[in-house]
Design brief:
about 375 residues, Outer Surface Protein A, domain 3, Rossmann fold, four-stranded antiparallel β-sheet, 11 helices, 16 strands, about 35% helix, binds zinc ion
């Protein structure tokens, strides 16, 4: 491992700099965040521009007459805060030409160009299981293919119905009557060259015994017979195998639920959520008389499904590249109300007494 001064850095192209006497403001355009530092060095913007990805750090500092101890401290700070990236390898021109926007995005999650290549590799090689190709799953599949995921296991036992078209992505009138797994496979391969394992089957108690699957991330987008039922099955299988999993969310007309991310052993599991939410719901319903109506028909609105799916996909992206500290739905339930564009959050703690992930739990790890 080379020391900081023997490394090559580049000022990230997404960073805008504003210098004023004694101060430097750095605006990270990708995440729209500012970082301001006090500095008694004039001409810092000119200095930072010299970090062009070709010159060793010590040469930049020597040319500017900056003390190497101070310089090293400054470079480390700017690297840790995603202003300078460590250029420890080059991007292949053909990869950069095709994926420069994704590369630019990933640079905000890592500290070096080799970190970017590693993340691209994880995206393209990690098999992702998507269960349920409905109003959320179809959008999630598309979003992940657009993000560079190239190995899919798609599970659904349904065919495309004309009533699906207003809210599910990738289905057109000519697809009515076709298997959803076939249509989505075709759709994904129109986006990028990818491997798709199609399973025309329904998730039930025997599913994981019938199919021997190898995947790095599961996204549950199945809601038949209920989201709770499918979540429990996927949650339990993934806890046994220590595989990260996401609950792809649901929607009720204007309200969208963004499901939780679970990192086995590190975060609240599906059972922790269930217990905590039961308590919250019980308190909310105390003294309330409930009118049960059978065969209720609830409206659905395509754009709200897309919101739920896009946030789920963003979480999947972070898990796949290993950016766990950036997850927004870890130990957290999120609701989005599209009518008012409001987000609400409920924090859920990992429960030490949990029968799955607690210290005496079945899947404690
Ligand atoms: Zn738990």
């Amino acid at each position: 491992m080379f020391a900081v001064l023997d490394r090559i850095y580049r000022l990230r192209s997404s960073v805008a700099l504003v210098e004023s006497p004694g101060k430097l403001e750095m605006f990270r355009t990708n995440v729209r965040e500012s970082l301001r530092i006090k500095l008694d060095y004039e001409g810092i913007t000119g200095l930072l521009a010299k970090f062009d990805g070709n010159v060793f750090a010590k040469n930049v500092l020597d040319d500017a007459g900056i003390d190497s101890v101070d310089g090293e401290e400054l470079i480390t700070f700017l690297n840790e805060n995603h202003i300078l990236i460590d250029v420890d390898c080059s991007y292949l021109p053909e990869v950069f030409a095709e994926k420069y926007r994704t590369i630019n995005l990933i640079e905000d999650y890592v500290f070096s160009t080799s970190g970017v290549i590693e993340a691209l590799d994880k995206l393209s090689t990690s098999p992702v299981l998507i269960v349920g190709l409905g109003a959320v799953g179809t959008w999630v599949a598309t979003n992940l293919a657009q993000s560079g995921v190239a190995n899919f296991i798609l599970v659904d036992d349904d065919i495309v119905d004309i009533s699906n078209l207003h809210r599910q992505d990738g289905f057109f009138q000519d697809d009515v009557g076709a298997k959803k797994v076939d249509v989505i496979e075709r759709r994904l391969q129109e986006i990028l060259k990818c491997n798709v394992l199609k399973i025309f089957d329904r998730l039930d108690e025997g599913f994981f015994a019938r199919h021997s699957l190898n995947f790095r991330l599961a996204v549950n987008c199945a809601d038949y017979p209920s989201v709770d039922y499918t979540t429990e099955l996927i949650g339990e299988y993934c806890m046994q195998k220590e595989i990260p999993h996401l609950i792809g969310g649901g929607y009720n007309l204007h309200l969208s639920l963004i499901g939780q991310s679970v990192l086995p052993g590190k975060s609240a599991c599906v059972r922790c959520f269930k217990r905590a939410l039961e308590k919250i719901n019980q308190a909310d319903l105390e003294g309330v008389k409930k009118l049960n109506r059978l065969n209720r028909k609830i409206g659905s609105f395509g754009p709200v499904c897309a919101v739920s799916a896009s946030l789920t996909s963003s979480e999947a992206f972070k898990i796949l590249i290993g950016a766990f500290s950036q997850l927004a739905t870890l130990n957290r339930r999120v609701e989005f109300r599209i009518r008012t564009a409001d987000f609400t959050f409920t924090e859920i703690e990992k429960n030490d007494d949990c029968e799955w992930c607690g210290t005496s739990g079945r899947y404690f790890c």
